[in-house]
Amino acid sequence: MVRWDGQRREAGEGMMEWDSLWFNGHAATMAPGGILRDAVVAVKDGRIAWIGAARDRPAGRAAEEHDLGGRWVTPGLIDCHTHLVFGGNRAREFEMRLEGATYEEIARAGGGIASTVAATRAADEESLIASAAVRLQPLLAEGVTVVEVKSGYGLDLATERRMLRAARALGERFPVTVRTTGLAAHALPPEFAGRADDYIALVCDGMLPTLAAEGLLDAVDAFCERIAFSPEQTARVFDTARRLGLPVKLHADQLSDGGGAALAARYSALSADHVEHTSEEGTRAMAMAGTVAVLLPGAFYMLRETKLPPIELFRRHGVPMAVSTDCNPGTSPAVSLLLMLNMACTLFRLTPQEALAGVTSNAALALGMAATHGTLEPGKAADLAVWDVGDPAELCYWLGANPCAAVVRGGRLVKSLQG
Ligand code: NIG
Ligand code: FE
């Protein structure tokens, strides 16, 4: 029992009762106010009950106390764009790209997403869960407490459902909050070759309404690109999402400027993702709609892209920027969000502060979870990552190191200071 008696009030009257308390560290709250030195975080019922400088702490006692030993605390990290659940891998395609083939060429020749669709259709739910768990665990060890997982490698009702169920199962078996996004409009399945409008009709009239009715969807996404779906087809998917009361996100302007970001903004999308080719007009539309730009430096790096996302325009127009792994077998087999922080700074020239906001407060915005996650503030989920670093910028600095010393999710210690 921690005794705060003798602080400001006597034990008893007016005394706060907490479940746990973290002290003797520094906090990057990612909320207005920013950095708290010699911080105290008090937790009650899975939420942050109080956070502030030690000298301002109210009188109270906690059932358990944790000495941070001078370490830093941030909100639990949020990986807001992943395709974590899939069958097989695409190492052979990686080799082909090194030999000169482009991502688009491979896709048009029937490889790419279609090859992962075949492997995913052949996998049962348990094996999808098991292979995704192998990718999830390194993320969790790095302080990730919320992860978004998309479907999109099934492209038929049964397999899309199986992917989403596998994603939800990960949230039950591991200490992580999972948000599921229906990406049935990811690519044209081979059985619909030449009949894209028919497939979109199936997605809108059959697949999405059924998956939504089964409670498997938190949001809807699509791939708007010349190798995927047109803006008109994407708009049909978004109209369906609106009818179902689901928010939308979009793989937008990744390989070309198809006006995807502006389209997403027209539907008040939570986010437009990739956005390398987004124009100033698209940027303005995003700013007006409050649509987050989700930057995916792993895909940019892996495809050896040269067109940078318009970071300066996002800054100028006040578009919030998030950063994510885009963990997927084709363009970004990334299982480290910390590495993405480094790449966002090195490749996209984000400041470490911007990159950190990208995996906390802005990532929460991109998932529609800003009311409960993404910053260290009273009332928010007690999701904390504790770091063995001398300064938060160090989280963006190391390549391949993991300074995460402890993780708390919903007030519960899920990775302990001892290791
Ligand atoms: O986010 N761009 C489309 N979708 C994924 C890649 C999918 C794949 O190649 O398997 C992405 O980059
Ligand atoms: Fe993606």
Shape: globular
Give the biggest beta sheet: 8 strands, mixed
Mean pLDDT figure: 95
Tell me the helix content. 25-40%
Distance between the termini: 23 Å
Helical segment count: 14
Give every kind of bound small molecule, once each.
N-(iminomethyl)-L-glutamic acid, fe (iii) ion
Order of SSEs, N→C? Answer: EEEEEEHHHHEHEHEHEHEHEHHEHHHEEE
Spatial extent as radius of gyration: 22 Å
Q: Count of DSSP E strands?
A: 16
What is the structural class? alpha/beta
- Described by its quaternary structure, the protein is single chain
Low-confidence stretches: 1-11
Question: Can you tell me about this structure?
Answer:
This protein has helices spanning 91-98, 103-108, 113-121, 125-141, 157-173, 196-213, 231-244, 260-266, 280-289, 297-302, 311-317, 337-346, 352-358, 361-366; strands at residues 16-28, 35-44, 47-53, 60-67, 72-75, 77-79, 144-150, 177-185, 219-224, 249-252, 271-274, 292-295, 321-323, 384-387, 404-409, 412-415. With 419 residues, the chain is α/β, with parallel strands linked by helices. The protein is globular and about 70 Å long. The two termini are 23 Å apart.
